[in-house]
Structure formats: C-alpha cells, structure tokens
Structure prediction request, 480 residues.
Amino acid sequence: MPKQEKKLSFEEALAGLERSAEILKKDGTTLEEAMQCFEKGVEYYRCCNEILNDAKQKIEFYDKKEA
Amino acid sequence: MAIKPVKVSQLNGYIKRILQSDPLLGNVSVIGEISNLKYHSTGHVYFTMKDENSKINCFLSAEYLRDLRYELVDGMEIIATGYIYLYERGGTYSLNVREIAVEGLGNLTAAFEKLKQKLAGEGLFDEKYKKPIPYFPRKVAVITSETGAAVRDIIKIIKSRNNIVDVLVYPCLVQGPGAAADIAKSIQDVNRLFPETDTIIVGRGGGSMEELWAFNEEIVARSIFASKIPVISAVGHETDFTIADFVADKRAETPTAAAQMAVPDIGALKAYVESEKDSLIHVMERLIKYMELRVASHNISALSVSLNHRLLYSAMNAETLIKDIRGALENRLKDWTVRLEMTKSGLDALNPRNIMDRGYAAILNGEGKMTGTAGGFLPGDDLTAVMRDGSIECRVFDVRRDQDAKTREKTEL
Prediction:
C-alpha cells in the first residue's frame, strides 16, 4: 500500500495508478479485490497529483566566479 | 672571407644557433599536407608536411598531442605552428609542432571520421553503455553558452512544458580553442557539484563545422562517456552530427528537441492521470452495478420458488420410481406363483398316496426301505405293507419270482 512511509517517485505512483486501473478492468476480480485495488489506485492518483501540483521550479545560472 | 675548416659538429652547432635564434623561425605557422604519419611508441608523432614542390619533417611531442583538437590523417591539410629545430647529430632540421589547426570541410571530415572510428573501436558508442533518460527529472543541468540561442530555447521549452523541474544553467565556452576542455570540465563539475542532477543537456546552437568543432573533440567525448548523469547532446541543427552525439546517452536534433526530450509535459501528464482516475472510477461503478444486478437476480422469493419447483419435481420423480418398483415386484410375484403351481402339480402326479388311493401298497423291508423287488426277500423275512389308510406288518412265506425277472437278473449278472 502506498502509505507514504517512503515518498513514491512520480514514475512509481503513475505505474501504480496504471496497474490499478488495469487490474480493475480484468474479469473475475472479486468485489473485495476490486475495492482494495480501487483504494490503492486512488491513493496513487493522489500521489501523482501531489507531485504534479508541486510547482516549485527554480531556474538558475551557475556563477563559476562565485564558486 | 674564408675561415679555416671547422668540424661537422661545429658547423651544425653554428647552424643550430642561427636557426634557433631567428625570430621568424622560432614561431612559424606552415600550411601543408600530412604524409608519412607515424605514431611512435613513446607517444610522439613524426610526419612530413608537403606541398607540390617541397617537404619538411615534423615532430609533435606527446605533450602537445594530448591538447590537439584534431585527429591527424595522411593527406589532410593542416596549419602547423611551432619552431624550427636542428637535430645536430643527424644534421637535419624539423618543424617542432606545438599546435595544429585544421580548416575546411574535407580536412575536418577526415579528422572526424578518424576519431569516430577510434572511439567506436573502443566501444564508446555501444548501446550497452547508454543510460536511460529519466522520465520525470527533478533537476536538469544545461551545459552551454549562457548567452547563446540554445540556452534561451531550452529554458523557453522547459518552462512551457514543465513547472516542476529545476534548471541549472552551467555556462561554458562552446567554440574556439579552449571550448572542448571547458565543456569536458563542466560535465565533470556538474557530476561532482550537483550529483542530484537527473539529466544533463550539453550543446549549442547551429554553426559551421569549425564552430561546432569542440563537440567533435576527444576530450568532450570522453567526459560524456564518463558522466554518471545521463547526457543528452544537442548540437546545431538536425543535419549536424558530432562525436558528442554518438557518445551521448541520447542525441537531440536541436537544443529545442533536447528540452522536449528531457522533461515531460506536465499539462499532458495531468490530463493522463485524470483520465486514469476516471477510468478507475468508471470501472468501479460498473462493477458495483453488475454486483447489484446479481444480488437482485438472487432475491429470496425467487430462490424459494425455484426451491419449490425442485422439491415438486423430486417428489414426482420419487413417485414414478416407487410405481416402477411396485410393478416390477408384482410381475415377479406372479411369475413365482405360476411356477409354484406348476411344480406342485408335477409333484402331485408323483405322490405315492395317489397310487395307494387306487389300492396299491408299498412294501418296505426290515430296514424300512422300499426295494421294489421280490428278489430282496427270503422266506421268514419281515416286511411292512404301507397302504392308503395304514400299514400291515407281514412275514414272508414264500418267494416266487417271475421267470423273466430271473432271466433279466442273469443277463444283468
């Protein structure tokens, strides 16, 4: 479960979200499995969104003389 | 004015002083074509430079070879700068080369091809060494001229696609004699000072082959190869191929393309993540609807009706079976009765009582056995005559046997 003990990378979170959607689409999943999968997927989704909305871009020119 | 004869070494020593004290010969640049190129095991290079009419021996020490910006090839025209040196023992002089410049497309292409071959032979371009470019970088370092068009283009594209990734512009020279060393050092510096960098873009905008040459120098190729951080090369235009492109983990056709390659489009990613979430919800809703339908189709009254049906059916089945069994039993019974009757009438026909009814008696000997023959008796034997209504104890007076019975006995004996 992505319980945020360790921050997921965006790639991991996105892969988790895609996997959840894929498993859920498969036939023959029980309701129990589907619910778990759905919850995980939503968790991954939140994780992705958190990263995507973290717009703290820095653009800097390194000054060789100062260093 | 004649002077007295001098020794050979004296003459050569004199010529040497003249040659080497001449201000022009102490720093001269010569244009000519390379021939007889030889790399000595000591690391020094010997070759000849020539034009249509003349030639001169040249020497390039290992020390200067290291800083050389071009691979040397026989037939290539170069501008060699150095000083005239006299080798006293041989009485020969040569051009001691400190620097070589190469100009013109043909000559540069020859140098390019030679280095390309050399590095390919060493495996620097091998696919197995190519590092994947991180899909979602947090920090991209751009090694290029801080005043060039490339850096502007790269920053513009990155900002338009991505407002998360940090960009570090690491300024360096991108053309001229010192550029290659500066580029190489910058790549090393970024690896050392900013190891958290996910991707390096190294490059510059378009220009002539001479202007782009720094990216064709060995020192740059080696530093790209040594970089722990994946490197995207972005030199010039689509049609420009440099050695840096071959050794880089990924080649971008232009600096703009490099920026697109280096960072994902956050807007598109957001849309994609939303669509994945929507599909998650959609599938879940559909699943729940389906489950509801299944529950509805299995309600209790429907269940009990079907149960009743099944009970009824089973009861009917049981009844039919019982009927069948009963029928079979009756048939069997009838069968047995008929056979019993038949057996009984057969037995009746054989019942001795029936004969006794007609007046016959059964004669039993002393042991109570029916022998059925007169021959078994002797006068004085006791016998019992059993009749219909009782028996008579008798004694034999005489035994008279039929004539033919005796004969029959004889023949049997």
